[in-house]
């Protein structure tokens, strides 16, 4: 089992931060309304954690953005494909409440029965009052066949 730990923040996280800030400004103080649905598409280069071969990862899904009294929750549900043959699903949850910024990402992909699988797991927590990172875990794990 190979585990890759990275300290960078992915493009998906950056997208969600920017989308949240933009929509926070657009929606203002909303009552307990339904989340706003926004299509989500992201494509980026990465490396297959099982083989080390470069690949392109594509996310295609929907973001659900809910803002209430300066508290924002973004939930992203997506289908994932790669140029190296993986397919799967993933979800992100972003929470911004004036005290913390929290990101949780869980993805599971496989190539098919009896072939390699991989898991992506991220937990990031930033204390907005102090600017301190309280948690920063990013792992891509090759689970093998």
Describe the model.
The protein is mainly beta and 145 residues long. The chain has one domain. The protein contains one helix and eight strands, in the order E-H-E-E-E-E-E-E-E. The protein has an eight-stranded antiparallel beta sheet, with helices on one face. The chain is globular and about 45 Å long. The chain starts with a strand and ends with a strand.
Question: In brief, what are we looking at here?
Answer:
With 145 residues, the protein is mainly beta. The protein has one helix spanning 11-27; strands at 2-5, 36-47, 54-68, 71-82, 87-96, 100-110, 117-127, 132-144. It has one domain (2-144).
Helix content range of the residues, please?
10-25%
- Contiguous helical run count: 1
Structural class: mainly beta
Order of helices and strands: EHEEEEEEE
Rg: 16 Å
Count up the domains.
1
- Which word captures the global form? globular
Distance between the termini: 10 Å
Look at the structure and give the mean pLDDT. Answer: 82
Number of DSSP strand runs? 8
- Give start-end ranges of low-pLDDT stretches: 1-30
| Strand arrangement in the largest pleated sheet | 1-8-7-6-5-4-3-2
Q: How would you characterize the largest beta sheet?
A: 8 strands, antiparallel
Strand fraction = over 45%
Question: Could you outline the blueprint of secondary structure elements for this entry?
Answer:
Elements: E1 2-5, H1 11-27, E2 36-47, E3 54-68, E4 71-82, E5 87-96, E6 100-110, E7 117-127, E8 132-144
Antiparallel strand pairs: 1-8, 2-3, 3-4, 4-5, 5-6, 6-7, 7-8
